[in-house]
Amino acid sequence: MKPSTNRMLTRIKSVYMFINEKGTVTTQELVDEFGITSRTIQRDLNVLAYNDLVRSPSRGKWTITKKKVKISS
Fold it and tell me: SS3 of 59, please?
């Protein structure tokens, strides 16, 4: 796996874990927490949403779904 792909997957996992820990977060909170652009966060959230791991109950807010996830290190 390319280093850039590994870095992206690690970041997406971290985003998921952050949302799981906080409950509901805004896109801006994620930008501030991870220090990356809102566009990059949006791409990451799109990957998570496509895989039914997060959902947006209202514009700009994100929460995890009830889908079971096994998290490996």
Answer: coil
